[in-house]
């Protein structure tokens, strides 16, 4: 019993704040005056032993409460980890579009793709690349280059071909509309401009939509930091991949520059940026071909 008493106070000293609050709410210590104990004479020893036994029971109750609390915390952590695994798992990006395609009629998807191709989008007024063919089906291209489990992810191209550094990227995740996946890349890219640091900080936000075997739409919003005048504009790209034959798809790249600040160098920025963007996507297409 004395051992149990020392355990109570030792544990109480180390208990987290939340558990101490729980202890105060659930346990009240008996109030025993010294005068009352003296009046009991020979009953003091019995009362003291009863007190120790009572406190030992309370110690056991505290330990049990700790175990229950710890189990609840583990359950919450496991549930949270399970959700992250589902969203960012290796097969998630493939299974996501599998569910999407099952939930929509094939004709509905075909009509949506046909409308997407002919509708003009003010974000992407300029066509940079059109009609370039690569030897992949839509299914093979998605699983090889786009999915979370892709054999040749874009990060590989960025590191090996563009010499990008410190590349960080999220996994594909549902953006909330049940039809679009999104992900973000943060990295440092070589700066070809004569001014500014040798490496520019870049953030690219990607979304992807798949229209069954008809095609894929990839949209990319890119911002650059640390380079003179880079805070004046945002780069918008759209890539349309269309199945033209059973074993080939064509690529179209549209582009737009969205200016968020006034600058007297707007025309110069438009010309130089579009040239750089076009080169990047042509390099990417050549890299894709080299992987086949």
Descriptive account of the structure:
The chain has about 290 residues and is α+β, with helices and mostly antiparallel strands. Helices cover about 50% and strands about 25% of the residues. A hairpin with a 2-residue loop joins strand 7 (about 235-245) and strand 8. It is extended and about 90 Å long. Mean pLDDT is about 80; it is low at about 1-40 and about 80-85.
Offer a quick outline of the entry.
Helices cover 48% and strands 26% of the residues. It is of the alpha+beta class and 292 residues long.
What shape does the CA trace take?
extended
Rounded Rg: 32 Å
Q: Bin the strand percentage.
A: 25-35%
Q: How many angstroms does the end-to-end distance come to?
A: 75 Å
Helix share bin: 40-55%
Listing every helix as H and every strand as E from the N terminus to the C terminus, the arrangement reads: HHHHHHEHHEEEEEEEH
Stretches where pLDDT is under 50 for at least 5 consecutive residues are: 1-41, 79-87
Number of helices: 9
Largest sheet descriptor: 8 strands, antiparallel
Oligomer classification: single chain
Which key features would you list for this structure?
292 residues; alpha+beta; eight-stranded antiparallel sheet; 8 strands
Describe the secondary-structure layout:
Blueprint (H helix, E strand, L loop, with lengths): L1 H13 L2 H10 L7 H6 L4 H45 L3 H12 L2 H13 L7 E9 L3 H9 L7 H7 L4 E5 L3 E2 L6 E10 L8 E13 L3 E11 L7 E13 L2 E12 L6 H26 L1
Antiparallel strand pairs: 1-8, 2-4, 3-4, 4-5, 5-6, 6-7, 7-8
Helix pairs in contact: 1-4
